Structure formats: C-alpha cells, structure tokens
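Team,

Forwarding the record for the chain on the shared tracking sheet. I've put the sequence and predicted structure together so nobody has to dig through attachments.
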Amino acid sequence: MNNIQLQKNIQKIPKLRFPEFSDTFEMKYLHDIFQKKQKRNSDNKEKYVLTNSAVEGIVSQQDYFDKDIANQDNLTNYFIVDLDDFIYNPRISKTAPVGPFKRNNLRKGIMSPLYTVLKPKVGDLSFLENYFQTKYWHRYMFKIANYGARHDRMNILQGDFMKLPIPFPSIPEQQKITSFLNSAEEWLKNLQTQKENLEEYKKGIMQKIFSQEIRFKDDGGKSFPKWEKKKLGSFLIERNEQFPKSEQYPLMAFVAYKGVTPKGERYNREFLVIDSDNKKYKRTEFGDFIYSSNNLETGSIGSNRFGFASISPVYGIFKIAKSCDHQFMGSYLVRKSFINKMIRYRQGVVYGQWRIHESDFLKIEEEIPSLEEQQKIADFLASLDKAIDAKQQQITLAENWKKGLMQGLFI
C-alpha cells in the first residue's frame, strides 16, 4: 500500500481534543520530521554499546544481556547515537509484533548498524516518543511490511520506512498533549511509589515480627506464650505422590517469587518429553510448602496459592499440619535466615545439582509461636497484602486510563 492510499484511510481529527485547538492534523512523513544519521564510530573510541528493547527502551547492552556481546576491539562500523535520537529496531518478537521505535533517554553511545538511527528535525520530542507507542503507528507499519516464508519475520525497506505517515498537530498542541500525558505519568509513578513503600514496610515489619522484636496479644490483651523450638518434622508432612498429570491435577510451573502458576512458553518443556501423557509428576494442593534445593537463593521456595496441580518431581513438597497456620508458614519459611539454614544441608557431587534430603530437612529446628499467634500474624500480613493488591489495582486502572487517553489524543 503506497503513501497516498495510507493517507486516505487516516482520520484527520482525534476523538479527544483540547478546546483551543480545532485545525485538522497535518500529514507528514518520517523524512519530514527526522534526518537519518550515518556517523560511524570510525576511531573505535566509543565503547558504550546500546540496544533497543521493546519493553525497556534504549538500554545498555551490558545490562540487557548481562555481558558485552559486541566485539569491543572492532566497533568502527557502529553508529554514533546521541541523547534524544530515535532508534528503530527492525527485529520483532512476541513482545514487539512490530519493530520498536524508541527515543534515547539514557546517554550517548553506539548502536549496531542493524538499527536505524534518526535525529529529530522538528516536533515535540515527548509527543513523538508517545506517538510511536500507539496502535496507530503500529497499524501503519503493518500495512507496508513484507513477511518472510515463516510469516513470523517482518521487514520494512528503508525507503518505505522513511515514507511512513505521521498525523502532525501544531507544535502548541503537541506540547499541550505532552504536558497532559506527563501529568498522567507522574500520577502513575506516585501510585507505584506508594505500592513500593507498602512493600518495603511489609518487609521491615516481617523482620521485626519473625525476630520477635514485635509480639502480638490475644483478643483479651494478654501475651501469647513464648515461642517454642520445634523440628520441622513435627508440623510438615512430606507429600511424594507421583502420578501422570490429569484434569484435576493439571501440569503447572513453580516460578520463583510467584509460586505455582500456569506454564507459559518460557517454562513449558513438555515437547521434550517422549511420553508426556504418562510421565509422572508430583502432586501438590493448596497451602503446601514447596522448594527447589538448586534454586533457593533465587526465590524458588514458597507456598502453593493455586490449588490442585502437578509439578516437576525435582521439588520438595510438604503438607502443613493442622497444628500450624499455612499462611503464617508460607511467610515464615521463606525468610532469608531460614533459607541460609537450609542451604547448610545441601549435598551434591556436581555443582548446581544440589539436594536437601527430606530426613535432614525435617530435622531443622525453628522457634514457632502458638497457633493463635500464628493466625494473628497471618491476618495482619494478609491485611498488608490486601492493601498492596488494592494499590496494584489502582495502578492497572491508571495505566488503562492513560492508554485510553493516548488512543483518543492521537490518530
């Protein structure tokens, strides 16, 4: 589809408008707004390599990949990138069905010649930055894309790319839109900060509760009994039921810091199993305590908050006896000091292939409060979780509201 055909399909007035503006948007092309940059790192002096991530924007390649993947001795062919340059990444993925087009807000650096680097000639930079995240811009890109035989790789020729249209309001209207969206973004950041403060408060108060610096009282105002030292085996019961997955016990993943959760593509390895229908998995139920000996340090420990599930047999799974509150134990048994104690019992002849024998694990001793105090603590922590969840719901609503604004303010 050529540019004339594209323009015919473009609405000239947005759904949402500030009252002081009434003119139709002027239609411009990318080459009207940007100048393509071709300056190379010919002296190989610049070593700070940038990359364009669909989710994170322009970031350090070192931070994104956790290592330098470029040859630091030969960066002469890389493009010089300045602050406020815009970079188009022609590669697509499931998080970026069209190539991400991002503004460099980080610092001066260099980028692979696979990218297209553009210097703005006209327009409000924040307006342009926001526009390239809208569904309208992506729609235009889809219409001129060429797809490979697999239909999962998209290519836009450089000449076609620079002819992509942009509905372009007056500079004062661009600035007004930017100011409004910046206010919405500040509101979002404020909500996010409030949520982070609640999470930090919860971490701090949990440390004080579990170290017994803070104690609870019963409903009559009396102190609860002294915490009693008990072996884990007195209230944890190993669950080692192994059966093929079923409708009642669907195959799930156990994800660090999330617990039992549906398998996404990242965690689904069933295609590697020859007889996946008959392969046996461990069964788990709501409230079970689960851990992976290999990955304790990275959060692979916690409670089953999902329900009936089948998970990999590499995990240790324990039912919590009725003498203890499973919500309290779900928090108490993931604290750092307890994990460090567990690690001392790990055994293995190959690095990274550790195991904590159940017999050793169940001998670990911990100071445990009475069931009544456990329930008081669990209720208090649940109230904090409820406040954090409510704040996350506010953030989600605000994000959707801002997204709706952008779809109304742009065309």
